[in-house]
Prior knowledge:
With 145 residues, this protein is mainly alpha-helical. 74% of the residues lie in helices and 0% in strands. The relative contact order is 0.15.
Amino acid sequence: xxxxxxxxxxxxxxxxxxxxxxxxxxxxxxxxxxxxxxxxxxxxxxxxxxxxxxxxxxxxxxxxxxxxxxxxxxxxxxxxxxxxxxxxxxxxxxxxxxxxxxxxxxxxxxxxxxxxxxxxxxxxxxxxxxxxxxxxxxxxxxxxx
Length: 145
């Protein structure tokens, strides 16, 4: 009799009845948390390629502001944001992929602003924005590995 009581007590405790309810992690449209943070190989490759390009341009812009301002302008915005949108944002399906895409788009906006500010003669602010873009591109590259 005591054995039956112990077995029933263990079964009752294991089922969670009367105990603390454990909640499952939030999900997006029925996906699991693991699926939300999964990065597909094609997304990783595209995100890393874009992050590398943005990083290179931001580093060059910080080093030689005047030369890049003459060449860049609207072309930078179109190529950077368009490239991220086409190669990265359209492939993003998980939460982590969408965050990486947003970070790369923010880096593109900061680069575009850096060029505009440099054209207005504010070199220090332009370099600060280029540094922010570089940091965001590096963050996106680390997150997409």
